[in-house]
Design goal:
The chain is built from twelve helices and eleven strands. A six-stranded parallel beta sheet has the order 8-2-1-10-9-11. It has a five-stranded mixed beta barrel with strand order 3-4-5-7-6. α3 links the parallel β1 and β2. One of its GO terms (cellular component) is cytoplasm. Keywords: Cytoplasm, Methyltransferase, Transferase.
Length: 422
């Protein structure tokens, strides 16, 4: 009976219930599948979020490491503009200024102060050079040439129109600093000029950074301004412009450890070099160079944030002190923390100012730890045990033309090596 009951066909009502049961079961399967898909999607989203968070942490750590690699101190150099008066022609004056610019750029000088040791030159860069002599504006011409060389080549046409002081600029050797970039060169930072291009308010401005495309920045700025731009890491190839943000001109130095050129400042006298410092607390280390100073070998360089190295003119720092109405001192040495002679036992009666920056750079002259590892910055082996022929051969092959002088006749005593004049 039980088997017949199981084999008995179901009525119309029961068949309808079985059909509804199948539909309900199919719906449950579909809902379960959707739930599994949703669960898998959420799982993938969590994994993707974790990966993005880990990537952001890695980028932040890399950025922190780059910031740790930055240089947080500055080096300033002050020299009189009267050094151009010693040049016999406009061509030589231009080339002399170019020598100073290259020496300062190679040793990563952040600021060049051109001061008037006679108190007669103009205080601005407006005007033209009026000739050689006491009435000539040598400070203005020197400052203008220094600014011209520091500016990247693709920006010079916008910032430096034709001028008499720059008529022999073709004789100048390029600085080739890190911020003087080629068109296709990749870099995190670039120098640019804000172009006069209409934009909507709050949509940012366009900057010419010397690339094939202009850069759209995050701020609306006045056209004609020189800015430092940090380019975004991710750029859209199909976009008509690049993307970037305006940053401080100090960011390449403090965050990436890049040398980003120098600034030029005019000072009316020697005391204005110290009084008009662009830093809030001024210079915490001042170094004066003179043949009457103490031997550089006995000087020790302390820790500093803003260092200033001051060079004298043809008559030394004494002339600048005597002509300054704000200084009531008889000796220049009281103005500086260190007053040193960077080339003792020199083979010439005078050290020209254009030779002084390479010879007096703190890293070379004051024996920073990078040079304390070896008694010879050029990697020379001990010369005491060499024969005369070996010494002469090594001297000519490795040091010839590098500005190294000898303290005694012949080559028996090479003396203290100085860095080369460029």
């Amino acid at each position: 009976m039980a088997e017949r009951a199981r084999k008995r066909p179901c009525g119309p009502g029961e068949h309808g219930q079985r059909v509804e049961w199948r539909k309900w079961k199919q719906q449950k399967k579909e809902e379960k599948k959707k739930w599994k898909d949703l669960k898998m999607t959420k799982k993938l989203e969590r994994q993707r979020a974790q990966e993005e968070q880990a990537k952001r942490q890695q980028e932040e750590e890399a950025a922190a490491q780059r910031e740790d690699q930055g240089r947080h101190y500055t080096l300033s150099v002050a020299l009189p503009g009267s050094i151009l008066d010693n040049a016999q022609s406009p061509e030589l004056r231009t080339y002399l200024a170019g020598q100073i610019a290259r020496a300062c750029a190679i040793f990563c000088v952040d600021e060049i102060v051109v001061f008037d040791e006679e108190g007669q030159d103009a205080k601005t860069v407006e005007g033209e050079f009026r000739g050689v002599g006491k009435k000539g504006q040598a400070c203005v011409q020197l400052a203008r040439i220094l600014q011209y060389l520091e500016c990247p080549q693709y920006l010079r046409k916008a910032f430096f129109p034709k001028h008499q002081d720059l008529q022999f600029a073709g004789l100048l050797n390029p600085l080739d600093s890190p911020h003087h970039m080629r068109q296709d060169e990749e870099s995190q930072f670039r120098e640019g000029i804000v172009v006069d291009r209409p934009t909507r308010p709050g949509q940012g401005s366009f900057v010419n950074c010397g690339m094939k495309k202009e850069v759209k920045i995050d701020k609306n700025l006045e056209p004609g301004l020189r800015v430092t731009v940090r380019l975004d890491q991710k750029q859209l190839p199909e976009s008509k412009t690049y993307r970037g943000k305006v940053v401080s001109s100090q960011d390449p130095r403090t965050k990436a450890g890049l040398y980003w050129g120098y600034t030029v400042r005019l000072a009316s006298c020697l005391s204005a070099v110290f009084a008009e410092a662009p830093f809030q607390d001024g210079y915490d280390l001042t170094i004066g160079t003179s043949e009457r100073g103490s031997d550089v070998a006995s000087a020790q360089l302390p820790n500093f944030r803003h260092a200033l190295v001051v060079f004298g003119g043809l008559q030394g720092l004494e002339a600048g002190v005597d002509a300054d109405p704000n200084l009531e001192v008889a000796e220049p040495s009281v103005l500086f923390d260190l007053y040193v002679n960077t080339c003792p036992s020199q083979g010439s009666r005078t050290i020209r100012t254009e030779v002084s920056p390479p010879a007096s750079h703190p890293r070379a002259a004051l024996s920073l730890p990078s040079l304390e590892r070896s008694p010879h910055p050029f990697g020379l082996p001990p010369w005491q045990n060499w024969s005369r022929d070996e010494l002469r051969a090594s001297w000519e092959s490795r040091i010839l033309g590098a500005g190294v002088h000898s303290t005694a006749p012949g080559l028996e005593d090479p003396g203290r090596p100085c860095l080369p004049l460029l």
